[in-house]
Amino acid sequence: MVFSKSGRDKGKAFVVMEVDNQYVKLVDGKLRTLDKPKKKKIKHVQPTLEIVDLTTDGRALQDADIRKRLQRNKDSVKREVIRIV
Questions:
Q1: Residues contacting 55, CB < 8 A, separation 6+
Q2: CA torsion, ordered 75, 9, 48, 23, to nearest 10 deg
Q3: Which of 4, 46, 70, 80 to pair with 25, CA 20 to 30 A apart?
């Protein structure tokens, strides 16, 4: 789980789906879905200590799964990021 440090999505929580050289592909399940991930430079995201579990008991991962897991962990992770920065 990461938070955006710049752009119009600044401060928003995302799940990293892919890492490619200087870029990461981010999803949040709402505006940035699994079909259309956000491509963002690594230097523009704030990593957290939180690892989001994306297991789905044998079914395909859906945007609703990502939304639920981000919402569940967002408050505790924000406190950790503030201490790290």
A1: none
A2: 160
A3: 80
pTM of full prediction above 0.85: no
**What does the pLDDT look like over 31-59, one tens digit per residue?**
999 999 999 999 999 988 888 888 888 89
CA diameter of the chain: 38
Give the residue among 62, 37, 42, 54 at the shortest CA–CA distance from 2.
42
pLDDT digits (tens, 9 = 90+) for 54-76: 888 889 999 999 998 888 877 66
Q: How far apart are CA 39 and CA 52, in angstroms?
A: 19
Alpha-carbon distance of 45 to 24, in angstroms, equals 9
